[in-house]
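Reviewer 2 asked us to include a model.

Predict the structure of this chain.
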Amino acid sequence: MEELSHLAIASTVARGDADVGMGNEKVSMQVREVDFIPLQRERYELVIRKEDLNKPYIQAAIEIIQSQEFKKELGGLGNYDISETGNIVAEV
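Predicted model (C-alpha cells):
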C-alpha cells in the first residue's frame, strides 16, 4: 500500500490497514493510536550560490535563520536539534 503523505501513513497504521509505516515524529504525535520509533536523524541545509550571497533578500533570509527568535520557534516545533542552525558549514 502506498500513501502520499506522512499523515496518511500514520492514519493507515492507526486504522489497522498496515502494521508499520515510514513517517516523521511530528505527524505521529498528531495520531494518538500510533507510536514513533526513530530510525535515523536527518540533516537539512540551505544551499546558496556564492554570487547570490550578497543579495539583500538572501542576506535577510540568513539573518532570520541565524536569529534567536527563529531558533526558538524552530525548537518549539518538536524534537529538533537546532545546535547548528544558522551556521555556515561549507563554502565551495
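The two ends are 42 Å apart (CA to CA). The chain has four helices and no strands. We have added this to the supplementary material.
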